[in-house]
Design a protein that fits this description.
Length: 207
């Protein structure tokens, strides 16, 4: 393994939530996941390592690849399966191949966290032009989260949806930062925020 290799994210989702899985289905270019599946996101640098690592994961298990992306700085892939054991095994195979442990991943940090109450109808219309999920309705409360490394935003989104009756608007999990938009009542958004923050802060890794 190259000396400059970095395992930026190793992000396991035990059970994809309905809205989250539906949103992923609108942006993925690989095998389509459905709700209830387990999923694993792995982000690395240099980005071109992703090709080798995906090859190892899909040959060794029945997990299916949903994404394989190399962007300006990093590479990222996702695999999923109805079987949690298959996804966990895929992750183990990847780590073994790289000679790393899960704790060698970068510990995520929250770069920005905002709760915006009583959203203006004008702002709602602007944001809805970029959303591939639920629409933002004027008067709702909106949650905006930004994390690094980017792939961990998937964990934040999935855990937030587990915790509260919220509308998932948008998730961006590629690049230097991952971003999440959610909407709902103020009480539900506060519960979603707590769940998302708890999930991110519970991930162990190196600084």
């Amino acid at each position: 393994m190259a000396e400059d290799f970095a395992l930026r994210a190793y992000c396991y989702l035990d059970r994809m939530q309905p809205q989250y899985a539906a949103f992923v289905g609108t942006v993925t270019q690989g095998d389509l996941p459905i709700e209830g599946m387990a999923s694993l996101y792995v982000e690395m640098a240099p980005g071109n390592w992703v090709f080798r690592v995906v090859d190892v994961a899909v040959k060794a298990t029945d997990a299916k690849p949903g994404a394989q992306i190399v962007e300006r700085e990093f590479g990222m892939f996702e695999v999923h399966s109805p079987s949690q054991a298959d996804v966990i095994r895929a992750g183990e195979v990847v780590l073994d191949n790289l000679g790393l442990a899960v704790t060698d991943r970068v510990r995520p940090t929250i770069a920005s966290l905002q709760v915006i109450t009583n959203v203006s109808p004008y702002q709602a219309q602007l944001l809805n032009r970029f959303s591939r999920g639920m629409m933002l309705v004027a008067g709702q409360t909106m949650l905006v989260i930004e994390v690094a490394p980017a792939a961990y935003i998937n964990l934040a989104a999935n855990e937030a949806e587990k915790a509260a009756n919220v509308n998932l608007m948008h998730v961006t999990s590629v690049g230097r930062f991952g971003r999440l938009w959610m909407a709902g009542t103020e009480a539900d958004i506060l519960a979603a925020r707590e769940a998302a923050v708890t999930a991110i802060e519970s991930v162990e890794g190196r600084a």
